[in-house]
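Internal QA ticket QA-208
Title: Verify multi-chain structure generation after dependency bump
Assignee: T.L.

Test input:
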Amino acid sequence: MQRAPADACWHWAEMVFWLAALAAFFVFPGYRVLGSQVLIVSLFALSLDIVLGFAGIVSLGHAAFFGVGAYTAGLLALHGWNEPFSGLVAGTALAALAGFAVSWLVVRGEDLARLMVTLGVGVLLYEAANRAAPITGGIDGLSGIAMGKVFGIYAFDLGGRTAYLYSLGVLFLVFVALRRVAASPFGLSLQGIRENPRRMPALGVAVRNRLVAAFTLGAAIAGLAGALLAQTTQFVGLDTLGFPRSAEVLIMLVLGGVGRLYGAIVGTAAFMIAQDTLAGIDPLYWQFWLGVALVAFVFFARGGILGAIDALRGSRRRP
Amino acid sequence: MIGVLFDGLAYGALLFLVSVGLSVTMGLMNFVNLAHGAFAMAGGYVCAVAMTRWGVPFLAALPLAFVATALLGAILERTLYRRLYGASQLDQVLFSIGLTFVAIAAATWAFGAGQQPVRLPGFLRGQWTVAGTDFGVYRAFLLATVALVSGALALMVARTRFGARLRAAVDDGIAARGLGIDVDRVFSVAFALGSGLAGLGGALGIEVLGLDASFPLKFMVYFLLVVVVGGAGSVKGPLVAALLLGVVDVAGKYYVPQAGAFGIYAAMVVLLVAFPHGLFGRRH
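Actual output:
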């Protein structure tokens, strides 16, 4: 089964991983904009990992919370409040609130109903944002957002210099926190619920409350990622809320490996770099092969990239 | 008022035709098939190509769409779907999203991204005016066709040997297997039939829903909605749900155009929370 980094002790590969993320800033200065997007979407995928990988809830509308965060941060900045960190906090808080409200609907039903409620909430919010054009800009989105400087010193620039380091900083902090959460009794009880929802109540775990907490946490982090995207790109479009985004983040997470935190980041990076290369040739080509890859993936490569690496290492150890 | 009701019923009948196959897949095989709309789209393209390129008349193109999509469904069921019957919901979702992407990309590649123009035969165009209300001839044709098809379907389920096997398989697959019913075969036939009906619905729906390559995603929520609200695994549930949905959607767009599809989605979430097993669903 999937394993999350289990304890407070950091493996050397983890340190290399984060140093590589920092080094990429210096080694590929031309790709800082793409890099910052990868970091932000990684954060988004990470938030889905809490919901899907730990709590075991398949969500088809996770972009709803991403969008709530993005629109909150975007609207705040557009109406004059352009200090970045408080914008992030506001986006996170509102998304958490929305997630908390929705979570009660989600945990009520069984698998299929859950799937449909998350899907329904997603399309509902999309349609709401689409119709509330005077506030959200409708199909044109929110543009002309002017962000303040990070720490009052570093302005957002076109080269993505500030955006990359800002996103990396936020991602790293959240990751460290989630790593702790995953190893905490709370995180373990979530994995227990995922593995056996019938046995956990017998152990005295309040399943419903744990799921609500996990879903709310996931929504909050999704909102944080959305707010980050709004601030760094200084634009919020309707596509932040759409079903394609919910589906894509699901694909990225599964591609990397579900329930292991690093899978979210690895999968997002692989997906977005492939997309950047292939969609540049022909968007149609990309969509077709993505579909084929997904089907093949379900049949042959469960566990994702990290799962495949584990399998390789395991087979090497057992000669 | 009556005109809106009439249009809504015709729209709902169409939704039913497309979704009834999905109800079987989700009820029988417990399979969340997000790619069901792709079969409807395939039927639509078969119909459009047959009419515009080969000069087949509309009424002959409809059965062609049914047969072609049923065949496509049978092939995909045999090769891909059946391997995932016992798989986790996540696997099924990913697989069917992948299939949808492939279908959209293939359709765009083959036919372009634009709407497919289809010219209806003369006797299906125009309006009848009865007591000051306009009734579209095509909508009446649609209602009649769907009534005919659903009648045949209901008869088949209630009266034929295959129908009895199907009901047994839905009620209790394990017991049905024990009685010597080839449940796998029943599933295959039901899947092909459902795909064919979706294709027929897609062909009939070109005039009402439109047809372009984004069709499977655009209407995905509607098809799922019909099944989930109606309760998977039955014929009556989706029928009532589809008619209800059609009327509410058409009325909403007619009377409160600024709300768009908002009302229908809100209704969906409320219904899902109030009836997690659907209006006519059975609790297991």
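Spot checks passed. Chain B touches chain A through 44 residues (CB under 8 Å).
Status: verified.
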